[in-house]
């Protein structure tokens, strides 16, 4: 109950600021008579989104499935790689330079190649989403697993703990905050990469809606699609925040 009240209390300033921004936007565009093709009013965007809620909902569902699929695959791969590098340090020496090089290049730059390899369907979007996530999760978790001091590790060894036992009892709990941070960043990166990939080539998805509406100079549809995509991203982020409180309850 107390945690719920604290969450509500912390969300109120954000909601108030957002409401103030929307009101300023609404009255500003009305007073200045800004054309809809330049900057539509929030009320018009909301009316467009609600008027075609079935269409936007279906396209958003495709995008969220692709983003979550890529996020889950990339997260699992990143976690497995980080654990493997801790258990076998030689893997870190061999693979980390390659991981740093690939991570230095924006994942969006790989979209044309991924579309050529996997086609225009969902598999290419899931692949680019996984690529956007795997290295950020790997680097964050690896730094978290290395956080415990050598004295703590040696103490567990003196009690006969195995390498797996040290990893499970000491390093993983110490690395959970870093892992959750990596997951949060990875979720945002996966969603962005998937939407951009849909813009460049897809049969469906909110990114393809934005691309087609832009080509048709349909400003209201573009803004409504962006609004719906933002709501979907916020919903995913809320789930991740709830997961954070479960995984890192002691923080």
Detailed description of the structure:
The structure is a single chain. This protein is mostly helical. The chain is about 85% helix and about 0% strand. It contains ten helices and no strands. Helix 3 (about 55-85) crosses helix 6 (about 120-145) and helix 5 (about 110-120) packs across helix 6. It is elongated. The two termini are about 20 Å apart. The model has no long low-confidence stretch (mean pLDDT about 85). This is NitT/TauT family transport system permease protein. It is found in: Cell membrane. It is a multi-pass membrane protein.
Give a topology summary.
Layout: H1 2-31, H2 42-51, H3 53-87, H4 89-104, H5 111-118, H6 122-145, H7 150-158, H8 163-200, H9 206-215, H10 219-247
- Number of helical segments with 4 or more residues: 10
- Uncertain regions spanning at least 5 consecutive residues: none
How many discrete domains? 1
Residues in β-strands, percent: under 5%
What does the oligomeric state look like here? Answer: single chain
Radius of gyration equals 22 Å
CATH fold-level assignment: MetI-like fold
Specify the helix fraction band: over 70%
The CATH superfamily appears as: MetI-like
Just name the CATH architecture: Orthogonal Bundle
Q: What's the CATH class label? A: Mainly Alpha
Question: Can you describe this structure in just a few lines?
Answer:
It contains ten helices and no strands. The chain has 251 residues and is mainly alpha-helical. It has one domain: MetI-like (MetI-like fold, Orthogonal Bundle), CATH 1.10.3720.
